[in-house]
Amino acid sequence: MDLIALPAFADNLIWILHDGANAIVVDPGAATPVSDALRDLKLRLTAILVTHHHPDHIGGLKALAPLLRGPVYGPAHEAMPVDVEKMSQGMSFELLGTHVRVLDVPGHTAGHVAYVVTEPGRAPWLFCGDTLFSGGCGRLFEGTPAQMRHSLDQLAALPGESRVCCAHEYTLSNLRFARTVEPRNTALADYEARCKALRAEGAWTLPSTIATERAVNPFLRVREPDVVASALDHGAASADPTDVLAALREWKNTF
Ligand code: ZN
Ligand code: FE
User: Fold this and answer.
1) pLDDT in tens, 206-222
2) How far apart are the C-alpha atoms of 56 and 253, rounded to whole Å?
3) Ligand in nearest proximity to the CA of 8
4) How many whole angstroms from 167 Cα to the centroid of ligand 2?
5) Rounded to the nearest whole angstrom, what is the distance from the C-alpha of residue 213 to the centroid of ligand 1?
6) pLDDT tens column, 43-72
7) Residues labelled catalytic
8) Residue 158, burial from CB neighbour count under 10 angstroms (0-12, 13-18, 19+)
9) Tens digit of each residue's pLDDT (9 = 90 or more) over 227-242
10) What pTM value is reported for the model?
11) CA distance 78 to 57
12) Per-residue confidence band for 100, with pLDDT thresholds at 50, 70 and 90
């Protein structure tokens, strides 16, 4: 399978996983970039995966329905504008020779799901919507810090080589915050330099990997002494990982 990132709106990425003939599209917030890409690459739309109900992730579903030759998989506990196969924690299915596993990752929205797509012998692709970003995480619109911490812990436990396909290119602004939280993290400084060079060339910083995120993302590093100390300086109620995450998220909201 090959992976393509299609830009949409200001900073969304719509991911396409394809085998040269058939395509799986993730979170089509807009239909036109998707239908243009399918036409240009002569791909049949075989399935759509949806992570959560926000308009920038579902806005293209109705317009793409006539092109679709298979199901839409979506979160079991969120309202969707089209009929979906209702997905929740632990469910799995086969798609174009890949194995797809579903995780519940509430926090950004109450019913947010993520998809881990595995092709035999290759690093998994993680489609995590607005839960995990490179260097950051989604805002807590509907969930609690405890839910988000549990969701991020689940994602952090995936194999290190897993490719993190987030739904927004927010990496540089996330890393500016991360460096403020953890100024002594040299892996973070190196990663920021690499990402700046990629963006200067007009390239995406994504997909990232789970190993990279474990090394640089403060929201996955809520047990690291430097992250805990910074969070305590910014209003964390205690060194408990949930309190640390809550303080980081509040701090980032106004950073
Ligand atoms: Zn969202
Ligand atoms: Fe979004």
Assistant:
1) 999 999 999 999 999 99
2) 20
3) 2
4) 6
5) 20
6) 999 999 999 999 999 999 999 999 999 999
7) 52, 54, 56-57, 108, 130, 168
8) buried
9) 999 999 999 999 999 9
10) 0.98
11) 13
12) very high
- Report, as an integer, the average pLDDT of 158-181: 98
CB 152 within 8 Å of CB 133:
no
CB 116 within 8 A of CB 103: yes
Distance 53 CA to ligand 1 centre (A): 7
- Tell me the ligand closest to 107's alpha carbon: 1
- The protein residues having their C-beta less than 5 angstroms from ligand 2 (an ion) are 56, 130
Segment holding 249, helix H or strand E: helix 241-253
Cα(218) to centroid(ligand 1), Å: 20
CA dihedral in degrees (98, 102, 105, 109; nearest 10)? 100
Looking at all shown ligands, the one closest to residue 138's CA atom is 1
How many A from CA of 168 to the centre of ligand 1? Answer: 9
Nearest by Cα to 84 from 56, 49, 116: 49
CATH class of the structural domain 2-253: alpha beta
Q: Which sequence spans correspond to the domains of the chain?
A: 2-253
Integer Cα distance of 74 and 17 in angstroms: 17
Kindly report the average pLDDT of the chain as a whole number. 98
**How many angstroms does the Cα of residue 211 sit away from the middle of ligand 2?**
23
Amino acid sitting at position 17: L
Considering every ligand atom shown, identify the ligand nearest to the alpha carbon of residue 26 and give its number.
Answer: 2
